[in-house]
Write a structure and sequence with these properties.
Elements lengths: L4 E6 L2 E6 L10 H15 L6 E6 L4 E3 L4 H8 L3 H20 L5 E5 L2 E3 L1 H8 L2 E5 L3 E3 L13 H9 L1 H10 L5 H6 L5 E3 L4 H13 L3 H14 L4 H16 L2 H12 L9
Length: 263
């Protein structure tokens, strides 16, 4: 049996590929657990400073949760369904959202349900012109469960999010860009090069500073402005103790590009 997620490391960037193309890269429990395991490995791997995540094949980024698998779980009742399905998926998207190294989704096709929720959770997203998005959970009589009722309103605003959550209708990458779900639409053949180019633009800078920015933004979104400013101050204070801030300041003063050591 092939691995449901592939890992390839090239020039400080990890490429994670959801690898169930015959199932439109649906996220079953094995895929979910392997993603969490790979993120743990990547976090402590000093060779890796950014992640690009995409789907295998030409049809789908991910069509969402594996309906046949979680339908069996639902039949066991709410306690089992929440423990096995909901908490598992929420742990995966929450891990991506708060991950200290930048994660970029390269959305190559269908991004429905859990695939859309991964796109919502990661830090940045580039979509192929062939991508299609949807929040279709209502079509099978349920709300989103991997964070979609919380993250999409924060990205798109309440009314725009509710339109997609309550209708279940598919929408275009142009609409996804308009509501802040993705950053950019590119020709299909340029998708991975564009995602890697975006990662390279980030990797010019201090990886420690990037981690502090991600933490400040992720934590601050769920607080008041006053609390968010306190978080921002804390993240700056953590940088003051690093070689990276000194190298950045010295490089600017001396008119040269800083040389950062990384994590």
């Amino acid at each position: 049996m092939s691995e449901p997620v592939l890992l390839d490391i090239s020039d400080r960037i990890a490429l994670l590929t959801l690898n169930r193309p015959e199932k439109l890269n649906a996220i079953d429990y094995r895929t979910n657990d392997l993603l969490l395991d790979l993120l743990d490995r990547i976090e402590t791997d000093g060779r890796i400073r950014a992640i690009v995540i995409t789907g295998a094949g030409d049809r789908a980024f991910s069509a969402g949760g594996d309906i046949h698998e979680f339908a069996d779980t639902v039949r066991k009742g709410p306690e089992v369904a929440v423990r096995e399905f909901v908490r598992r998926g929420q742990a995966m998207t929450s891990r991506m959202e708060a991950f200290p190294k930048p994660i970029i989704a390269a959305v190559n096709g269908l991004a429905f349900g859990g695939g859309c929720e991964i796109t919502e959770a990661v830090h940045l997203a580039v979509a192929s012109e062939k991508a299609v998005f949807a929040k279709p959970e209502i079509n099978i009589g349920m709300p989103p469960t991997f964070g979609g009722t919380q993250r999409l309103p924060r990205l798109a605003g309440r009314k725009r999010a509710l339109e997609h959550l309550l209708t279940g209708d598919a929408f275009t990458p142009q609409r996804a860009c308009e509501i802040g779900l993705i950053n950019k639409i590119v020709p299909h053949e340029d998708l991975l090069p564009e995602a890697f180019a975006l990662a390279d633009r980030i990797l010019r800078h201090s990886s420690i500073a990037a981690a502090r920015i991600i933490e400040a933004v992720t934590r601050g979104l769920n607080t008041t402005m006053a609390e968010g400013l306190k978080i921002e101050s804390e993240q700056f204070a953590r940088m003051v103790q690093t070689d990276d801030i000194r190298e950045g300041l010295d490089g600017w003063i001396e008119g040269r590009s800083p040389e950062y050591s990384g994590f």
